Amino acid sequence: MIGAPEKAHSLVAAHAALEPSLAAMGPATLRELRRNALAEFVRLGFPGPKHEEWKYTHVRALEETEFAPAYGAKVDRNNLKGTVGGLALFTLAFVNGERAPELDQPQALPDGVFVGSLADAFDRIPRILERFLARQAGIADGKLGSHLDMPFVRLNEAYMAEGAVVSVPSGVQVEAPIHLLFVSKAGAMPFAAHPRVLIVVEEGASATVIESYLGHGGTYFTNCVTEVAVGQGATLEHVRLQQETLEAFHLGATQVHQAGGSTYTSNAVSFGGRLARHDLGVRIEGERTETLLNGAYVGMGDQLVDNHTRIDHAKPNCNSFEVYKGILGGRATGVFNGKIFVYQDAQKTDAKQTNQALLLSREASVNTKPQLEIFADDVKCTHGATVGQIREDALFYLRSRGLGKAEAEAMLVFAFAAEVLEKISVRAYADLLEQTLFAKLEKER
User: Boundaries of each SUF system FeS cluster assembly SufBD N-terminal domain copy (predicted)?
Assistant: First the structure.
């Protein structure tokens, strides 16, 4: 059950201090939206264990931490070497939720394509923001389904001032990937940042957009919301990496709306934090769409990694395919909840969902809950979940070929995750994720 807090939490109290600067950002309608969202967060409060959507993901530690507003910080570009932040991609960068142009890597883009900050977008593409901002996340029109009562989406809305906007006009093909880099750098005081991302790929256009969330030291809270609109016949590959520090909290929500004939591919990789959760919702609003959700999540030590997904098949003749794989060691906990809703009019739907988890220790655990709700009779829908450990026969086979135990285990774990990682088309990015996985496994030995 969600209950309102007895006194203003620091996440609420900080809003009053920032109100003058927030009021200067955006039109009057946005200011009203912020006020309403804050009031709704106060009403909802922090979710408790009796709330079904948060049954296995407890936020007590987050609630008990005092957070200051995000403060400015500098990150040396050299510190990003060896990470995805150091790749030679078109990059729009943020540090602690604020623009960090010194970390940008600009490249030429096709005419009409906008990649910039939310503040710049208000000046340069106001009609796009008026049409899409705070519409895809369902806050204005109530279309977010199970995400509708998520208090942290409301909290993000209350603080919405800065973030990234990608707008690709009709018929434009963007060949080079667009990288949105969000770096968190902790200081003496824990802070909270609330980045907002809007991605619009209009009719017949195509793009690859990467969101990366990286952390450096200490305790902080990243509370991010991403809205995605994929137009008629458009194609979007959307890569999302969450790689926070072991003391960090990360709560992210992504809502996608697909028009007819479009293709949306999500490749989401999470290396966890103290608490890391991502809610991904896709609403299919036109016929003959393709929706591909690929996810890999890794938790070690005492980490908690949570993935909630929801696909709303509202139109006929559409396909969705979902594969999520988890790797958990130490005392880590994984959560996967995947929902597929097939509406009465969504005949000829083909939907498949799979979640597999690999436990590397006796203390690691996973709570998995695949769900199907079908209200149409002419559909093909399947779902399944498996949880297991490294197969002894496979381990024996590799060791009989001269590999050490640790090396053989790492090879089997990598093969397990490869099905997801190999689907990322930006190979340099995928290669770094593979290296990160190996390094994380090495630390656990």
Answer: 23-179
Which residues contact residue 119 at a Cβ distance below 8 angstroms, ignoring those fewer than 6 apart? 25, 99, 161, 162
Which positions ≥6 away from 211 have C-beta within 8 Å? 180, 182, 197, 226, 238, 239, 240, 241
Q: How far apart are CA 200 and CA 262, in angstroms?
A: 13
140-186, pLDDT tens digit by residue?
443 444 444 589 999 999 999 889 999 999 999 999 999 999 999 99
Which residue(s) pair with 442 in the sheet? none
Task: Evaluate whether 325 touches 416 at the Cβ level (below 8 Å).
Answer: yes
CB under 8 Å to 204, separation ≥6 — which residues?
Answer: 170, 171, 231, 232, 233, 234
Mean pLDDT of all residues in 1-10: 57
Q: Which pLDDT does position 232 carry in this prediction?
A: 98
DSSP string covering 288-310, please? Answer: S-EEEEEEEEEE-TT-EEEEEEE
Range 315-336 average pLDDT: 97
DSSP character for 234? Answer: -
What is the DSSP code (8-state) at residue 242?
E
Look at residue 141 in the predicted model and tell me its pLDDT.
40
Of residues 187, 287, 293, 180, the one with CA closest to residue 226: 180
* 3-state secondary structure (DSSP) of residue 342: strand
Instruction: Please give the model's pTM, rounded to 2 decimal places.
Output: 0.93
Total residue length of the chain:
445
Can you give the pLDDT at residue 10? 87
Q: How far is CA 13 from CA 10, 69, 252, 346, in A?
A: 5, 10, 22, 45
- Residue 148 CB-density burial (10 A; 0-12 exposed, 13-18 middle, 19+ buried): middle
Closest CA relative to residue 253, chosen from 139, 84, 420: 139
pLDDT of 9 reads 86
Taking each helix axis from N to C end, the angle separating 28-44 and 10-23, rounded to the nearest 10 degrees, works out to 170
Distance CA(70)–CA(6), nearest Å, equals 24
Higher pLDDT, 26 or 276: 276
Q: Strand pairing partners for 179?
A: 91, 210
Between 48 and 181, the higher pLDDT residue: 181
Q: Count CA within 13 A, CB hemisphere, residue 34.
A: 24
Nearest to 36, CA basis, from 217, 177, 160? 160
Task: Convert the pLDDT of each residue in 367-402 to its tens digit.
Answer: 999 999 999 999 999 999 999 998 888 888 888 888
